Amino acid sequence: MIRTPLRPLARVLHARAKGENPDLIERENIRLRHEEMQDRSRARAEGRLLVLGVFFFCAFSVVGARMGMLASSEAQEPMASAPGATIAAQRADIVDREGRLLATNFETHSLYVQPPQMVDPVAAAEGLVRIFPDLDRDRLVRDFTGKRKFIWIKKRISPEQKQAVHDIGDPGLLFGPREMRLYPNGRLAAHVLGGAGFGREGVDAAEVIGVAGVEKQFDGYLRDPANGTKPLQLSLDLTVQAAMEQVLDGGMKIMSAKGASAVLMDVHTGEVVAASSLPSFDPNDRPRPPTSGFDPSDSPLFNRYVQGVYELGSVFKIFTAAQAVDLGLVNSDTIIDTSGPMRIGKFPIGEFNNKNYGKISIADVIVHSSNRGTGRLALQIGAERQQAFLNSLGMFDPTPFEIVEASGGQPLKPKNWGELSTVTISYGHGLSTSPMHLAAGYAAIANGGQYVSPTVLKQKGPQYGPRVMSESAARQARAMLRKVVTSGTASFGEVPGYQVGGKTGTADKPKPRGGYYEDKVIATFASLFPASDPKYVLVVTLDEPSILAYGEKRRTAGWTAVPVAAELIGRVAPLLGLRPQLEPAQGAGYTLTSN
């Protein structure tokens, strides 16, 4: 910075030469410097005032705009919130194959208390007890007058309850927004849907998470914000599911059964159109898991069609016959000797009620459900080939059905698969599987010999897996199953117009601690329809059925599971778009000759 001197030498010498006073020069320079400093200070002050004025103008503009917004918006209850990560509560809907709603979200509120803000804790406690009778007045008073600063009262309340709490008028009673899971159809398809609950919770929101069924299996998809408008579409048909549960519930009561299950599966796509396990529950109010007891099937949460792993009995005989035909060992007309005695080591192999069918065809082995007949076929097949065939049908692994409970349905097979196991497994004893496994196995017979994986998701077209048997073997097996209904152990399964084919199975029920009950059975009927061109497989299982008929107590599947399945097929077949039709007649054996 260059400063002008107050007494410049040139001007002082000039002034002295003219006889003037040099001090006047200094005073004049001081006056000019002061004026310059004054001008700069004024300019600086004016700039500061301008900036301050702009700041106050902006501040008052913001305050005015906010006041205008508050004045024009709807009044809301002030809510305290703690800092933290935002909780995403939005969850995608679940719909059936036709887009009908199975699970959705419902806006509600939670109720909490901040005691330091309360005006009259005692009156507030008494008011809450009137609204929520399950609350304890004395405990509320202790909490409200203690040192606690935050107390949850109810995680979910109805709009009517919210209004009643609001009418109490205490500023310490506060509401938090909630989004809960709603199942508008109640108990319908409860074991498929499973249920949902709250995970992380905050004042402003709660995390909705799946706890069972497809809600837990597809939790990631359902919680993804990108899928908020893309519902999860299942293979279930709501109307068919409702009819199944109604018929199955009635059949379980008539047959005095402890429990029941049914699986209806498309044989080409693997889609499970309906699946039911009874007793059931309401996923809107899911019960707690049992904490005591040895039999898990006592709980309504137990999913019988995937977790119910039992020896299913004679329904397995068709697999033995189909494999023997596929290997070229026999055909449906081959004669086999089923007469006794038959022993494997020291173990005798007998027939139901000690019957002796003698020499009969392979088809009649299935029709009469001969243990010795299938046992002798199994010995021809051999243990190694038998294991490979059952493994190709998915009988050794948990079913791939997409609900979390399915992973717990691990089939039980013998450690040492010798001749005895080969024989007993041929007629459904010694290998424990679930009804869903059985449905997949029968679907392979129904669709011409290809494995299809059971799925809860809607599919586009057939979903064939590897071929497990030839078309010829599958066709002959279907004819045998049809004959079981027309002239065998499943005669009560005939449904006019729908050509039902199937096989009965009655197995002693195992005890939770080992061994078998003497008077309790698992009765199963595995069926397909229409037998001439199968579209669906239906497996019905009754747990401990018993019915009095013709003066005797009956427990076998032919008397219990079969009539229930027939009623179910008659009810759901029209819903599935199947029209009743006459069964194709067998062509007569004419021979043309010249005259």
UniProtKB/TrEMBL annotation:
InterPro entries: Beta-lactam/transpept (IPR050515), Beta-lactam/transpept-like (IPR012338), PBP_dimer (IPR005311), PBP_dimer_sf (IPR036138), PCN-bd_Tpept (IPR001460)
Penicillin-binding protein dimerisation domain mapped to chain residues: 87-223
Span list, region Disordered: 277-299
Location(s), subcellular: Membrane
Source organism, top-level taxon: Bacteria
Keywords: Carboxypeptidase, Hydrolase, Membrane, Protease, Transmembrane, Transmembrane helix
Stretches that traverse the bilayer: 49-69
Main location: membrane
Domain Penicillin-binding protein transpeptidase per the UniProt entry, residue ranges: 261-556
Gene3D superfamilies, A to Z: 3.30.450.330, DD-peptidase/beta-lactamase superfamily, Penicillin-binding protein 2a (Domain 2)
PANTHER family: PEPTIDOGLYCAN D,D-TRANSPEPTIDASE (PTHR30627), PEPTIDOGLYCAN D,D-TRANSPEPTIDASE FTSI (PTHR30627:SF1)
Name of the protein described by the UniProt record: Penicillin-binding protein 2
Taxonomic source organism: Ruegeria alba
